[in-house]
Amino acid sequence: LGFGQIPVGSALAKTVSITNTGTTPETVGTVTAPTGPFAATGLPAAGAVVQPGASVPVSVTYTPTAAQSDASSLTIASTDQAGDQHTVTDSLTGQGVTGVKQLTVSPPSIDVGDVPLGSSANATFQVSNTGNLPLTISKAAPPTAPFTVADPIPEGSTLAPGDTLTVTVTFTPA
Q1: What are phi and psi of 112, to 5 degrees?
Q2: Residue 166 DSSP one-character state
Q3: Rounded to an integer, what distance in angstroms lies between the CA atom of residue 51 and that of residue 43?
Q4: R_g (Cα) of the chain, nearest Å
Q5: For 25, which of 15, 164, 169, 173 is 20 to 30 Å away at the CA?
Q6: Whole-Å CA distances, 9 to 72, 97, 99, 150
Q7: Are strands 49-50 and 26-32 parallel, antiparallel or unpaired?
Q8: What's this model's pTM, rounded to 2 decimal places?
C-alpha cells in the first residue's frame, strides 16, 4: 500500500481490505501491526473468524515525522478448518517531504478589450501548481454574468507539482 509523498507533520489514511478468498472459515492467529509513522485501526483480534468471501477493512494511517522514505508492513496469520496456515502481508511505503503547495494564476488579470453588445470575446488563464507538493482545489466558484466558463475547474481536483489547467472565460456584454 503506497502513500506517495506526504508533507511532514500531516497524515493520510487509506483502507486495505483483508479478504478470505477461500472456501472455509479462517481463524486469525497473530496480527503484526505496522510500526514507525504507520498506524492501523480495525485490525482483527486473535481468535476472530473470517468467513469465506468476507472482508475485514483495516484503516492504515501514515504520519511522517521526517523528510525521508518510510516502510513497514501489516501481517495477519490465520488457520483454516483443515489446520493449514496462511499469512497475508501488506507492505506499506511512504515518503515524508518538506516543501510548499503553491497555486499560481497566470496572468493575474485578463482584459478582453472592447466587445460590442450582442458579441462575445474569450480570454484564457492558467492555474498551476508551482510548489513541490500536490495540492487540492477546495473552492473554484465560476464567474458571474456577463462572464461564463464552459468547463469550470471541479472542486476537489488535485494538481501534482508542475500540473497546469487552462481555463477559458467568455465575456458577453448585455
Answers
A1: -90, -5
A2: E
A3: 16
A4: 25
A5: 15
A6: 18, 9, 12, 38
A7: antiparallel
A8: 0.64
| Burial 52-67, CB ≥16 within 10 A → b, else e | eeeebebebebbbeee
Q: What is the pLDDT of residue 23?
A: 93
Q: Do the Cβ atoms of 91 and 71 come closer than 8 Å?
A: yes
Residue 133's nearest CA partner among 103, 158, 101, 164 is 101
Average pLDDT over residues 120-143: 91
pLDDT digit string, tens, across residues 50-103: 999 999 999 999 999 999 999 999 999 999 999 999 999 999 999 999 988 899
Cell numbers representing residue 56 in the block: 475485514
Percent of the chain residues topping a pLDDT of 90? 82
